[in-house]
Write a structure and sequence with these properties.
- By secondary structure, the chain is α+β, with helices and mostly antiparallel strands.
- Helix content is about 65%, strand content about 10%.
- It contains two helices and two strands; from the N terminus they run αββα.
- The chain has a two-stranded antiparallel sheet with strand order 1-2.
Length: about 90
């Protein structure tokens, strides 16, 4: 059931993306980045570029905490392992 829900969710997401791109394919916007201004940029490019930029920012922001958790778990694993577990099975 969970696998079916995952596949259905991905299909619905893909259909939504295609619907958004189809409806806004001809729309152009002016994009002011602060240091430069881009004219006639497709709105779908702005939306998907913003999505990818957000994913990259969250990835970079999460690396530090992920490495911290891994270090803690590795320390717990080495503390809990005893020498007799590896001998003689």
């Amino acid at each position: 059931m969970t696998r079916l829900a995952s596949v259905l969710g991905l299909v619905l997401l893909a259909l939504g993306v295609m619907w958004f791109a189809a409806l806004n394919g001809g729309q152009r916007v002016t994009l002011d980045l602060g240091f430069t201004v881009l004219y006639y940029v497709p709105v779908t490019l702005v939306a998907f570029g913003g999505l990818l930029a957000g994913m990259l920012i969250m990835f970079v922001a999460g690396i530090r905490s992920d490495l911290k958790v891994r270090r803690i778990l590795r320390g717990r694993l080495s503390d809990s392992s005893s020498p007799e577990l590896g001998e003689g099975g």
